[in-house]
Amino acid sequence: MTLILPTTELRRRLSDVLDRVIVGRETIVITHRGRAQAVLLSTAEYETLTRKERPPTETDFYAIAQASLARIWEHPAEDVYTWDDGEPL
Length: 89
Prior knowledge:
alpha+beta, 3-stranded mixed sheet, YefM-like fold, 89 residues
């Protein structure tokens, strides 16, 4: 649920409003002179909204390759597939 509060009301009820944002996971729209000016939300919600996925790096690909090789060596009885045709080697 979104609560809309003027700045004067926010000043008066700040502790209650913070509880609603943090515990109740509510978003608060703050108005000033009758117009929406800001939004108050939890830091967890903010981090979710601003998180950017980074592209994989060479280190990521190396780790995947190492894990794949380890799996092959640890389970030699399983079929190993090639990238080209999907047929067992």
